[in-house]
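A common beginner's mistake is to predict each chain separately and then try to dock the pieces by hand. The better habit, illustrated here, is to supply every component at once so that their relative placement is modeled jointly.
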Amino acid sequence: KQEVTQIPAALSVPEGENLVLNCSFTDSAIYNLQWFRQDPGKGLTSLLLIQSSQREQTSGRLNASLDKSSGRSTLYIAASQPGDSATYLCAVQGSSNTGKLIFGQGTTLQVKP
Amino acid sequence: NAGVMQNPRHLVRRRGQEARLRCSPMKGHSHVYWYRQLPEEGLKFMVYLQKENIIDESGMPKERFSAEFPKEGPSILRIQQVVRGDSAAYFCASSPERAPEAFFGQGTRLTVV
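With all components supplied together, the output reads:
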């Protein structure tokens, strides 16, 4: 049974810092991995999707890496801003590509001005 | 192209009543997924539907919960005889035919009093 873990559960940093959020999964047979952002009381916004054959994806100040063999992904946020404050969720899709996502508990990030 | 539309955004029900949550997928999307986010917990998969078919309902509670995605109209998640433990945010996502990325709605926040 696939399990997804995110560490740390919460993180507080001053504005301008570079930071790394971690995601690990127990079954390396995944179809893809996605990072989402969730603002309080809101829905999910997809940030980056990494296919199982890819090693990383970049979008602006965000970079996500994937190491299937070790069951790990990281989300790197460069030059953090107060507007980055949100909960970041990691989700994996199993190898059968049913579209079903298994989510981690999330990392709640606070960027202080 | 409007995003995934969920309504109502907020729903209050008394114990024992029925709750009906609606999800209109993005135009051209034929796959719908429902997830539940309990307070202080991560998102959990409930059910995956295509038009007129339930593909995977492995995350649905065995009793009181049902889902449908008719040929015409929105997908409906129905909860009968609600209990306080059903209070949660319910999210719907949609995707095109077997595409890797799903798009999420803003969610319906159900409160059972």
